Amino acid sequence: MAAKGLRWFWLSAALLAFAVGASAGPLREARPLMGTLVEVALEPGPGGEAAAHRAIDAAYREMQRLSDMMNHYDPASVVSAINDAAGLRAVPCPPELIAVLSMAQALSARSDGAFDVTVASIRGWRFRADDPRMPSPAAIAARLPLVGWHKLRLDARARTAFLTERGMRIDLGGIAKLYIVHAGIAVLRSHGIARAMVNGGGDVEVVGGDAARPWRIGVRDPRAPEALLGVLALGRGFVVTSGDYERAFVRDGRRYHHILDPRTGYPARGPRGVTLTGERLEDVNGLGVAIMVRGKPDGVRWLTDNPRIEGLIVDADGSVWMTPGFRARFSAMP
User: Which domain holds residue 226?
Assistant: First the structure.
């Protein structure tokens, strides 16, 4: 895999959930994709293991195709074309990219801009502990007017996207990965695989589990990332994670992490981490990032108001809050 595909999803955050236990099935494979290791685990269908390996290969090909399309680090990608044409012209987009951009815009509207793919217009941050970079306050202030989800114009009929101001940029790291994981699951199912998991570095979809043999998804503790907070049992659906520890550095006693607040251009000051689960992609995709930006009170309200989503929030003070449905599926570590 080319190096370009190993970088671009670092903004997509990281409580990092992963499948654990024997229920994950006899076939597993992990390949580098979207800046992480994407794992596929499944039980072979009627065609046996040879057919299952062909299904796995097909799923990775489709996920790679979509990753290349949406990789803003690749100058040849469609997303880079949108960024390069900002303020100049609309760019034709494949239907999959229009779907992701539409999902992003809908979430931006629902979250009052807490999720905003145009926050990539703020340049100069690098969240590497060994080589951090931080833009000056003046640089952030100069570019902050370029941030605004309403300045991304989509034409679903013509399949075009247009950034209205020169210098604007989008980064789909907070919302494209789960869409790509879902595409991988769709390919597996089209090949006759009924029980499978695709884990994109903490953004997970599972199918084919039941009460007797659920998938068991481990959730890391953002307060101690080397440890598990607990294990979530799930038959089907999505587990998505956002957190503040995967890419971060400390300067002058303050910790800076990779989830930027679109209102300020600085790292969000909300919870340490969020884990969500639900059966509809559009319900959970990107919502964890919005909660990280808006904070626990809005997160609790959003989760309470939507019975299709269950979730866990680890707040800045270290306290842990869960919806009743999440708690019923969750086994905390002793």
Answer: 1-334
